[in-house]
Amino acid sequence: MRIIDIHTHAFPDNLAEKVIHLLEQEGKIKAVLDGKISSLISSMDKYGIDRSVICLIATKITQYESILKWAKEIKSDRIIPFVSFHQDDPLALKRIEEIKKEGFKGIKLHPYYQKFVIDEEEMMKIYEKICKEDLILVLHTGFDFAFERIRIADPEKVINIKKTFPKLKLVTTHFGGWKDWENVERFIIGKEIYMEISFSLEFLEKERARRMLLSHPSEYILFGTDSPWTDQGNTLNLLKELKLPSEIEEKILYINAEKLLFKRE
Question: Which of 178, 221, 224, 180 is closest to 198 using CA atoms?
Answer without folding.
Answer: 224
